[in-house]
Design a protein that fits this description.
Number of strands: 13
Largest sheet: 9 strands, mixed
Helix content: 25-40%
Strand content: 15-25%
Number of domains: 1
Strand order of the largest sheet: 6-5-4-3-2-1-9-10-11
Distance between the termini: 37 Å
Structural class: alpha/beta
Organism: Actinomadura fulvescens
Low-confidence stretches: 285-296
Order of helices and strands: EHEHEEHEHEHHEEEEEEEHH
InterPro entries: Aldolase_TIM, Radical_SAM_STM4011-like, rSAM_sf
Protein name: Radical SAM protein
Length: about 300
């Protein structure tokens, strides 16, 4: 089917756009979906889960909603259901952890993972770190991250100190912010992989797994190679996308989002994040850390 061992990774983003937080750097802050929009999102997600359930080849899924999915029962059910399917290798979701985490007790924890982001100012620190402690006690696989704003630095340091050493703390470069080498060095002390986030990656003409073994799917089943390239490859539900799968270079000048550039083959991030691509958990060893001066 594809050029990478017949395994298909799907980035799913349905109509859901509502969020319970109002982060100043997010255009979807405190947005409210109408009941009709929520019903449409639920129906779209259930249709997608049914499609995944019917597949015979290995599949991994990362839910990347514009809003917060885990406050919606249908996302929690979807994660639990997909985690138990034998051909689903990983199912993960990006989340702010605002909802309780006891639902994970029903999931297959060898398959489920969470990509959690802490948003200072939106939730008390102790409440967030308490959720992380709960997840650790439940043996749920997850990463924790924060945006590299100067005002977040002390909180990030506290997170690193309070999280178990084995829990990866990632730092996203703030959009549009130019970091001095000194500033970048401070954030790299917390996240050794921060240099990958610091600058957009020149991507035009570069080999990328998207459109081959990785696809983006919306609520209508429209398939694109990734969230950032509008060209349609086909539709998931009529199988028309499959004939369009294949290796292809990136047509964009730059790629500046982790869920995009992690699939750029020249970066070698499939080795860095071996076993943790979707949940952003690296297999971090000395040889996988960016050499001093690289990517700066």
């Amino acid at each position: 089917m594809t050029g990478h061992d017949d395994h298909l990774t799907i980035l799913y983003r349905g109509p859901l756009a509502s969020c319970d937080y109002d982060c100043p750097y997010c255009p979807f802050a405190k947005r409210r979906d109408t009941p009709e929009q929520l019903r449409a999102d639920r129906a779209a997600l259930e249709r997608f889960v049914a499609w995944v359930s019917a597949q015979a080849h290995p599949v991994s899924v990362l839910f990347t909603p514009w809003g917060e999915g885990l406050v919606r029962s249908w996302y929690r059910r979807a994660l639990v259901e997909l985690s138990h399917l034998p051909h689903v290798e990983r199912v993960a979701i990006q989340t702010n952890l605002s909802h309780r985490v006891d639902w994970t007790a029903d999931a297959d924890l060898s398959t489920l993972a969470l990509w959690a982001t802490y948003h200072p100012g939106q939730v008390p620190y102790e409440r967030f770190i308490g959720k992380c402690t709960d997840l650790n006690e439940r043996d749920v696989r997850f990463s924790v991250g924060i945006v590299g704003q100067p005002e977040h630095l002390e909180t990030a340091r506290k997170l690193r100190a309070d999280l178990p050493p084995a829990t990866y703390l990632w730092v996203n470069a703030a959009e549009g912010r130019a970091y001095t080498d000194a500033e970048a060095a401070i954030w790299t002390e917390l996240d050794p992989l921060f240099p990958y986030s610091r600058h957009p990656h020149a991507s035009r003409g570069q080999a990328c797994r998207t459109g081959d073994s990785v696809i983006s799917v919306d609520g209508e089943g429209t398939v694109r190679r990734c969230h950032f390239i509008p060209t349609v490859l086909g539709n998931l539900y009529d199988d028309s996308f499959r004939r369009a799968l294949g290796p292809r270079p990136c047509p964009l000048d730059v790629c500046d989002c982790h869920i995009g550039y992690v699939h750029l083959e020249p970066l070698g991030l499939y080795d860095v994040f071996a076993g943790g691509i979707l949940e952003r958990i690296p297999h971090l060893t000395k040889e996988h850390s960016p050499p001093r001066g690289q990517l700066t």
